[in-house]
Amino acid sequence: MGVLQAEGPLAFFLDFDGTLVEIASSPEKIQVPRTLPQGLIRLALREDGRLALISGRTVENLRSHLGDLPLALAGSHGAELFRSDGTRIGDEPAPLPAPVGQAFASFAARHSGVEYEAKKYGAALHYRIAPELEATANAFAQQVAAQSDLRLKHGKCVVELVRWGANKGDAVRAFMAEREFSGARPVFVGDDLTDEDGFAAVRDFGGFGVIVGQRSETCALYRLAAPRELGSWLQL
């Protein structure tokens, strides 16, 4: 870390699930390390506020797990953006149409092992405990996406629908336009397919990506084996 900092100020953009915390069998069964919230605050202070969490979870959900921390937050894959003081960047996004959530909930009810995750700005089907249903879940989500003009996002044992324009790369660009982050060398850390947009975006600003885990196809420059290694590297 010291060598990187010697080259100029850094800005950190961190994914949540699979990056800061281990992935669980369902989104609400994650175990957040007791020391993580204060560790993030210390990192933000060391970097003069140049820290943002960028997650597929809603900002409200992130706060339910971490508390109301004075950190910049991007939720719903970048659809909602907040500065560290709690003010919103841009307009509040439109929620997904109710029939989309109803269709996903009905699908999950019909398929044992599939869990529907309701989000204000998205809808997700998790099949971690029933991986044999991946093709079925993806085909159904693709059909709903086409009917509703929504974007399909794939992740680790999850398929999700969001509105067009919600991606982690644009979240990075929005934060880099803020005075707090401007001029810094950005580092994006993530583990999943949706983080590739973030990895690509930081390269445009002279930064680099760090992938967590064993996924092989990535444009990240560096790799860490697990969230605990990220915690050690960032002194969380």
Topology:
Blueprint: H1 2-6, E1 10-14, H2 36-46, E2 51-54, H3 59-66, E3 72-75, E4 80-82, H4 98-110, E5 115-119, E6 122-126, H5 134-148, E7 151-155, E8 158-162, H6 168-176, E9 185-190, H7 196-203, E10 208-212, E11 222-224, H8 227-233
Parallel strand pairs: 1-2, 1-9, 2-3, 9-10, 10-11
Antiparallel strand pairs: 3-4, 5-6, 6-8, 7-8
Helix pairs in contact: 4-5, 6-7
Detailed description of the structure:
- This protein has 236 residues and is an alpha/beta fold.
- It folds into two domains: 2-92 and 166-233, Rossmann fold (3-Layer(aba) Sandwich), CATH 3.40.50.1000; 98-162, 2-Layer Sandwich (Alpha-Beta Plaits).
- The protein is built from eight helices and eleven strands.
- It has helices at 2-6, 36-46, 59-66, 98-110, 134-148, 168-176, 196-203, 227-233, and strands at residues 10-14, 51-54, 72-75, 80-82, 115-119, 122-126, 151-155, 158-162, 185-190, 208-212, 222-224.
- The chain has a seven-stranded mixed β-sheet, with helices on both faces. The chain has a four-stranded antiparallel β-sheet with strand order 5-6-8-7, covered by helices on one side.
- Helix 4 (98-110) runs antiparallel to helix 5 and helix 6 runs parallel beside helix 7.
- The protein is globular and about 55 Å long.
- 39% of the residues are buried.
- The mean pLDDT is 92.
